[in-house]
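Trying the structure run again after the queue cleared.
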Amino acid sequence: TALTGLVSSAAGLAVLRLFIGFAGGTFVMCQYWTSRMFTKDVVGTANALVGGWGNLGGGVTQLVMGSVLFPLFKTGMSAEMAWRTVSVVPAIVAFSTGVAVWFISDDAPKGNYTDLKKHGNMPEVSAAASFRSGALNFNTWFLFVQYACCFGVELTMNNAAALYFREEFGQSTESAAAIASIFGWMNLFARGLGGYMSDKLNETMGMRGRLLVHTVCLLAEGVLVLVFANTPNLAGSIVVLVFFSIFVQAAEGTSYGIVPYVNPPCTGSIAGIVGAGGNTGAVAFGMGFRQLDYKQAFIVMGCTIIASSFLSVFIRIKGHAGLICGQDDLVIGKGTLSVPEPEEIGEEDEA
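Done. Tokens:
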């Protein structure tokens, strides 16, 4: 990020964005971290709050950089030099945060992984075996598609909402951007709300409760996309946008209320695959907005989201009830999600 000011070509910008994108992979690590640090009865809320405030950070950074720091830097230098220099500030903040996490935090409630492995309290886990097990679990891919239809939608709206309000309702660039920012500000509470609802229904209904609230959020999101596409006035569109955004981000929260249960030894790999679904969805929906007019693109997106909600019927997690049938294994306690050594494919389950 600090090197942004040195970019002088499109190719250089693409390469820089590629490496910045690698840093975005910390989302997956953080979701795994929270899954290990918090007990099962609150893991949905924990993952959702961490993810939601992470998404909010992008909007806050854009606002602070553009509205506060950039004008401040311009007072002592040219506009060209100001935008090339101002990116040093978030780079310093990010670096400082990384240093703090490294020296202050613990990997798990019982301490750091290095010490746990040294004393034989944690087995060595093969990354390849973990990824293979996670990728061969059908539940992973159902959640991949569903996450594409919530976080992928959020990324798409971040790119398209301002242009939509400017072109469809004749708003100025500044006004359209301000209206579009409402979508991101819902991250203050909406994703956390989804995780909280997932945890509350888990208390009374087990995994079926998590799947139920997840399905309802996706259904409501899809319906609201269709309503948004057919709202002819600005005021109505803004109201629908608020509720649409709430259900988009709540669905993101309910998604990661389920992820840690799919296969606990492979939570990191599964979180990564499901998270990639969000970016995949953004690319797919983005292509739709480039090829179709706004109304058609929103209709396609809404129908796709509604269809994805029915995939919850097919999510069957070992030891837990499905949406329609099955029951939770009462032996499973409320502790943190354990991370035993992954089972080898083809190997029989141990008693």
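Residues 43-74 form the longest helix (32 residues). Worth checking whether this holds up in the mutant runs.
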